[in-house]
Amino acid sequence: MTQDIRQRKIRLGDLLVQAGLISDAQLQLALQDQKRTGSKLGRTVLDLGFIDEGRLLRALSEQLQIPFVELKHYKFDNQLTQSLPEAMARRFRVIVLSRQAEGLLVGMTDPLDLFAQDEMERLLGKRVFPAVVRESELLGALDQLYRRTSEIASLAGELEGELQDSDFDLSRLGAESNSDAPVVRLLQTLFEDAVQMKASDIHIEPDEGVVRIRQRIDGVLNEQVMKEHRVASALVMRLKIMSGLDISEKRLPQDGRFNIRVKGRNIDVRVSTMPVQFGESVVMRLLDQSGAMFQLDGTGMPAAMLERFRRLLQRPHGMVLVTGPTGSGKTTTLYAGLSELNSPEKKIITVEDPVEYRLPRINQVQINAKIELTFARVLRAALRQDPDIVLVGEIRDQETAEIGLRAALTGHLVLSTLHTNDALTSAMRLIDMG
After folding, report:
1. pTM score
2. In the chain, which end has fewer C-beta atoms inside a 10 angstrom radius, N or C?
3. Kind and range of the H or E element at 87?
């Protein structure tokens, strides 16, 4: 089929006109606009709104008699995909999908790009058969597949080499500000990989003879095991210094936080250390402060549920509880709701432990158990501040539940989370609390 396309030298504009998807006049307009912008014709007709992406790709698939592959749920063979260098995959907007009897099936956003096909065949040494894919899905897949695991492993090896020098001082490594130090580059690569994969947590776990680095992506942990076990103590030391924790205290758990900028995004990192059998385990919760995620439309809720949730949020009073297991996005959902409600006419107070995302115009209070600043105490005070909406980070005890319910009955809208796995169990949990 590829040979057929190459022999016929098909042009996309002619193909779309023949298929009756755009008119001659629209094609001329698109060609003029293409000269001005320099982008591809396919992108131009989409941007001008002459045709939607689904119809364009299906037309290409039918006319060229090549498959149209949805990448959203596609099971990739990592090794096969990465046989094509990332730079080429991104430049030509292509991805290797599977082995065929006579060559390789390759997903392309522009299957008429003959130069790209020739370059891939030259590099891979195999015949290439094009399939049509969506550009947005392709870019998402490239981000997931071309990860930094090999870079992390090589940096760990470099750091291990440094640590083997008998006169090397671990505490000096932690305090070193040199951005070229392997520990700094290893951490930087770890964070870049986590942000690229949209990981919510990074776990660093020392074990006997190895160190495990695990990332929680979409609620599931992905593991990378490194033989360089000495790396763990250097990483922990560095993270403790960044979080303002006591580097000499290795017997007690500690909590801290710091802020970093990764790939143009502002990331708040909450650090928790815990003494384990072979050193200290560290878990970092990554909170993206860039604000792009606080849109209800971006939470992935089904349309019907989203409409119901929006209706509930617009009520003048009552209580809305978001429930679900750890890491399921309860807080993110509430923040997305809050950002929709956040207007000059409404007074919003949040009571949190800790304040996860900073939002403008909202009064955010962090509880502090050491000085007995508890959820219940702050909630009582918050209700005297004439709020319209109150967000309680989590209902943990009977007192907080009682004050929250009383507030909901006396004309306030109360938003909160409850640690139950589903909505049904929430009623039982509240009855359990009394």
Report:
1. 0.60
2. C
3. helix 86-92
